[in-house]
Amino acid sequence: MARKLRSDKWLFLATLALVCVSVVMVYSASAMMALDKFQQPYHYLTRQLMWAVLGMAVLSIVMRVDYRTYRNQQVIWTLVGIVGFMLLAVLFARPINGSRRWFGVGGFGIQPSELAKVAAILFTAYVLDRRMHRIDDVKYALLPIAVVVGALGLLIFVEPDLGTAVAMFLVVAVMVLAAGLHYGYVAVAGVLAVALVAAAAMSADYRIKRIMAFLDPWADPNGAGYQIIQSLIAVGSGGWLGRGLMGGMQKLFFLPEPHTDFIFAVIAEEMGLIGATFVLVCFCVIAWRGLRAATAAPDRFGAFLAIGITTMVVAQAMINLSVVLGLVPTKGISLPLVSSGGSSLLVNLAAIGVLLNISQHAVHDGAAVEPGAA
To answer: Which residues contact 253 (CB under 8 A, 6 or more apart)?
Structure first.
């Protein structure tokens, strides 16, 4: 008799908790701004709620599709081709805040770079699954990954979006490292990566200003250092319990992008250390359960796919939290599953759906893991 597949309830509940936090905090962070801009305080709430419902529906569908379906050359190359075309096409779109990262479709913004991260993960998992036995043969195993992922990353960088490109390269690097690449190659690649990122960071005046603001934000408190100063004020004023929901002050036209890149600062101000810690714990649970699914996956493709998806979500979250807390220079990277943004939320929930499906097939000591139904 066939066993009924069960998903990881902890992974599901952590994801659901973050989506619920997202809907509530996006409204709290954006209500006054939406009222001023659109004369409608529920503008961003309505959109986020719609994307959250759609995303959870997609998650529930994807988690029922066997992840091995994606281990198909035609599926992967079709996805890579579509994403590549979208990344090229978006360069001709109307610039928003100086960048060409979004398509405007029916009043909604679609960001191809979000889908590019998933395409890179699928392609890398497919190649590693087939060529892991010769992982140290750079030309055989790593060159295809470098060419495809490098091309996608270059198109993202040209938008310009250095943060997302770096995040994608980081995810792929973790996957390759997990495949057993010799540490000598890792060291050389690390040095080259640092040099390339440094060169890219110094290639634009606004990036240089961000680095200088990171080193001393008070040197230009009304310019390059303004965002991080307002973010730190919001985080610091939250205390243990916060000012209460809707009670934050920095979102009132002091903190730029309070509902997107800096939503964690609003959470810390209104929900305090306890609320901020809750969000962090949810991401830790996703990391824990995602890596557990990877180590228990029945095949290498599932293991690499789980590692890539887990790293994509958790690494981006850690980068965003580091920016909000002033630990790294400011980057345009949102908090996954929490920040306002339809394409980001939809893609991340679909990816979590794949991770949940991998967890359904996870095996420990020869027996399928059944941690509970989601």
So the answer is: 32, 33, 36
Contact 46, 338 (CB under 8 A): no
∠ CA 169-175-177, rounded to 5°: 100
Q: CA distances (Å), 266 to each of 30, 39, 322, in order?
A: 10, 22, 15
- Do the Cβ atoms of 346 and 50 come closer than 8 Å? no
Residue-wise pLDDT tens for the chain (374 aa)?
345 567 789 999 999 999 999 999 999 999 988 888 888 899 899 999 999 999 999 999 999 999 999 999 999 999 999 999 999 988 887 777 667 777 766 556 678 889 999 999 999 999 999 988 888 888 888 899 999 999 999 999 888 888 888 899 999 999 999 988 888 887 887 888 888 877 877 777 777 878 887 888 888 888 888 889 999 999 999 889 999 999 889 988 888 889 989 999 999 999 999 999 999 999 999 999 999 999 999 999 999 999 999 999 999 999 999 999 988 888 778 999 999 988 899 999 999 999 999 999 876 544 444 433 34
For CA atoms 86, 92, 98, 103, the dihedral sign is negative
Please state, in angstroms and as integers, the Cα–Cα distance from residue 304 to each residue in 28, 69, 348, 365, following that order.
38, 15, 17, 20
Query: What CA–CA distances, in Å, run from 363 to 2, 286, 332?
Result: 15, 18, 38
